[in-house]
Design brief:
Largest sheet: 5 strands, mixed
Number of strands: 15
Strand content: 5-15%
Structural class: alpha/beta
Shape: elongated
């Protein structure tokens, strides 16, 4: 029959097994004896509604193959073909590729896979039509999927008019995807699929996993695998089979997402933790090669996620001899000994920091392995760590004598020392933050109402404030508050008490913030004063002169800070010209400073993407003391796809023999504040000069206190 088209290309509609059964039933009936929906439902043991949902797909398949199907309301369903063509239909059904009729579990996995990779909300109709299910069945499926996703802190959201979508952070998505994939596929099977060596078609592997392999191809995975092999040889590391395959899948998916301009983000805290691991340098080496091969920009967050993979993969080789060696070392006791030495040198309590001890213990085993086997690792953060935390690095290096003696090595590379110093630096920052926290209570006439609003405002506006509760204005007991360690009362009404207090609006206004910031600076200064009972080590006259000199330079820097706004700037050259004039007394000085800043910017781009600012700095004989300023750009300057909100300006006097002097160290301390104190960056960008001054003053006071502790040995004895 020439009108019948049997080619695969024309038979586009795939049939489920149920739809195939319905067509087979239709061939058993004629125009004079039609079949009803009720009859079919009874024969197949399903409801009439289920059959009605299947009929449009049956009709579409018959029409595509040029068969005549008729629906007569009140009569029944008719396949209007002669006996010969009915036999032909049955023959076609035998060779017809049947669409899988999913089990409940498989269907839910497929829906989950679609949602995990969807870049926009999906309509419920998309799922009901794709899987031939009712709205009620879909709702039940989504309820179960939502419960499963809650384990990964991912929320399934259903919004009428918008659709179905998931909300969660990047790490949660990755963990969920990885677990779905590895639930039913072993690593060797994945490896075979990635390399195209599987004897089974991908369609038989699993419902969600097809979605994974749709996003990557063998050419991409081959390139990723080549990078991992080269990195393994170059850095003398070893991947386990599962870690190797996991990295290939992870990196391939990440590259595909980056090629699609999707964002990959990791929280700041998690990224900082990742950067303290030796595996971060390995991840950077991998990403450097990936950038060259795939021509994509790989964000630090992705380096962090790869670091997390590597950290759990035990990539540092351990032979049996080394295993016994580590077993014989009491890692925790050795770690505590090192922490004690650093604590003594820095004068900051560290032994009580359980997180520091735990992190160092976890870090120490692979470190010992590398040192004993003579394996080198590069620390990409070494220069910045030495610059930002010189005292911590020095104290860590001295404490490493414990490690050298324990494992019997003569030297420990600077890269390894700086990795350890990063842990101590993080612990020091945590301790300094504790020292600076202010304990407050909130009051109002009744102890409720507006004070709750104020409490919420304080928590949002001041990270250094601990709100210990809300009390009534009529129940203030100064003695009890002091016993509880409360520093300050913040009230919505005026008070009559000799306990420190401030009256502020429930929703903090600008003047309220300035009042609180000023009080915080004052109280933090008192908190950092020398406690009673501490012993001062003997100091020399030179020490005293140096202490005075640092204090004078610090006060001079604070006194001469300048903050300005530059309107209608056209380029960074305008900004550099403005910076040249900030601390100049005449045009000649301005020109000289401008030339120095321009030359430094020309040598290496001073744009800091993290803050969207220029970090203009240089040494010049036009100033005698350290100078710090900030230029706010209104509106921002745009260049080469980058936005510049402002510019840091730092000038240091020309030092003898170009050796770092006190002004350089002070400016380094200010630079550290910009990294460590997000409030300061926000204050500068907003043009809040009073707040900026207070933040810098508070930060430099912390710096000076630590300097004193190091210089004169203040600390518990």
């Amino acid at each position: 029959m020439s009108s019948i088209k049997r080619s695969d290309a024309d038979r586009k509609t795939k049939l489920t097994s149920r739809q195939k059964d319905i067509i087979q039933i239709l061939t058993k009936f004629t125009a004079s004896r039609p079949v009803t929906v009720g009859m079919i439902s009874e024969m197949l043991g399903v409801s009439s509604r289920t059959i009605l949902r299947e009929i449009p797909h049956v009709e579409k398949w018959l029409t595509q193959n040029d068969f005549h199907f008729i629906r007569k309301p009140g009569v029944g369903l008719i396949l209007d073909e002669n006996v010969e063509n009915q036999k032909l239909i049955l023959e076609l059904l035998e060779v017809e590729s049947v669409q899988k009729d999913y089990s409940k579990e498989d269907r839910r996995k497929r829906i989950l896979g679609e949602l995990l990779y969807a870049q926009e909300p999906l309509k419920s109709y998309y799922f009901t039509s794709k899987f031939h299910i009712s709205e009620g069945t879909l709702s039940t499926d989504l309820d179960e999927i939502g419960k499963w996703l809650q384990r990964y802190q991912i929320e399934l959201i259903r919004r009428p008019g918008l659709g179905i979508l998931l909300e969660g952070d990047e790490g949660s998505y990755r963990q969920a995807i990885a677990n779905v994939v590895y639930d039913s596929i072993d690593p060797t099977q994945i490896a075979s699929l990635l390399r195209g060596e599987s004897t089974e078609p991908v369609s038989k592997v699993g419902p969600v996993h097809n979605r994974v392999f749709d996003l990557i191809d063998q050419d991409m995975t081959a390139k990723v695998e080549k990078v991992l092999v080269e990195t393994e040889k170059k850095l003398h590391i070893q991947y386990t089979d599962s870690a190797y395959v996991g990295l290939i899948v992870h990196i391939s998916l990440a590259i595909k997402r980056l090629q699609n301009n999707e964002k990959i983000e990791m929280s700041r805290e998690k990224l900082q933790q990742a950067m303290m691991q030796p595996e971060f340098s390995v991840a950077e080496e991998i990403c450097d090669q990936l950038k060259e091969i795939f021509k994509v920009r790989i964000p630090k967050s992705e380096v962090g996620f790869i670091t997390m993979h590597l950290s759990s993969a035990q990539i540092w080789p351990l032979d049996s001899r080394m295993g016994r060696s580590i077993d014989n070392i009491n890692l925790r006791q050795m770690t505590i000994d090192m922490v004690s030495r650093v604590e003594e040198d820095l004068g900051i309590p560290l032994i009580g920091d359980d997180r520091l001890v735990d992190d160092l213990c976890n870090h120490m085993a692979p470190t010992i392995s590398r040192l004993t086997m003579g394996l080198a690792i590069q620390n990409a953060q070494m220069d910045s760590i030495r610059e930002e935390y010189p005292e911590v690095v020095q104290a860590t290096e001295a404490a490493c004598a414990v490690l050298r003696e324990e494992i019997g090595v003569e030297t420990i590379p600077d890269d390894e020392i700086c990795f350890l110093a990063m842990h101590f630096g993080a612990a020091m920052e945590r301790q300094l933050e504790k020292m600076q926290r202010i304990s407050v209570v909130v009051v109002c006439p009744t102890g409720v109402g507006t004070s709750r609003i104020l409490e919420a405002s304080l928590k949002k506006a001041f990270s250094c404030i601990n709100v210990h509760g809300v009390i009534s204005a009529f129940r203030i007991n100064p003695e009890q508050l002091r016993e509880e360690g409360i520093d300050l009362i913040l009230s919505t009404v005026n008070l009559t008490t000799d306990f420190p207090w401030l009256c502020v609006s429930p929703i903090l206004q600008a003047q309220d913030r300035r009042q609180i910031e000023s009080m915080i600076v004052s109280m933090q200064s008192k908190k950092r004063e020398h406690p009673v009972g501490q012993v001062w080590d003997q100091i020399t006259g030179n020490d005293v002169r140096h202490i005075v000199h640092v204090g004078e330079e610090l006060l001079d820097l604070l006194e001469h800070m300048r903050f300005e706004t530059l309107h209608a700037s056209q380029s960074r050259l305008d900004v550099i010209a403005k910076a040249g004039m900030m601390f100049a007394e005449n045009d000649r000085m301005a020109a000289d400073i401008e030339a120095g800043l321009y030359e430094r910017d020309r040598i290496a781009d001073t744009y800091v993407k993290q803050f969207h600012v220029l970090m203009l700095h240089c040494q010049t004989n036009m100033v005698e003391h350290a100078r710090f300023g900030y230029i706010r750009l209104e509106p921002p300057v745009y260049e080469n796809g980058r936005v510049i909100f402002g510019s840091i300006v730092m000038l240091a006097p020309q030092s003898e023999n170009n050796q770092p002097a006190v002004p350089h160290h002070l400016l380094g301390a200010v630079s550290s504040l910009l990294v460590e104190n997000k409030t300061l960056v926000d204050q500068l960008r907003a043009g809040d000069w009073d707040g900026s001054r207070a933040s810098i003053r508070a930060g430099l006071e912390v710096y000076y206190k630590q300097f004193l502790k190091k210089k004169i040995g203040v600390g518990d004895k």
